[in-house]
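We modelled the chain as a single entity of 170 amino acids. Its sequence is:
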Amino acid sequence: MTETYKYADYYKTYVKLVPKGDMVQILEDQMRETVGLMSMLSEEKCAHRYAAGKWSIKEVIGHVVDTERIMSYRLLSIARGDRVSLPGYDENAYVEEADFDSHSMKRLLEHFVAVRQATIQLINSLPKEARSKIGTANGHEVSVSALMMIIAGHELHHRNIILERYLAKN
């Protein structure tokens, strides 16, 4: 069965970053790479903001975790045939309410690993035909297979931002 990749235009930024290949392997590789990179950073560096009004590295990682939780819920709902239109969310309000800066990076990475492993287990549990199911989230049609790509691409997008804006040598 051919997978269906249906998603809103604003997700193209994420989807285009994802390499071709097995999505589970890509997600596992990303998990190892992100944990490896972030584990080397000091708590001071993780609290750094590259500009006023921008998130800290801790907040970026917390945002990635929150978003993966939300996208995984959407993936589950659509895969199980739920016909409800799933709501959007305000990422800035979520970050503000979460107070990620009060957590250690070690703890945030534990959250990241737990959520990523749950996402991988969810994907592994899906029948192949579920990947082509389409539902509605945030007012737009989206397929299960596209949500897998969005999860991977969203994390890559933010890892790239961390590398380019927070960790780049000037």
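As a brief sanity check on the tokenised model: The first helix runs from residue 12 to 15. The chain has one domain: 9-166.
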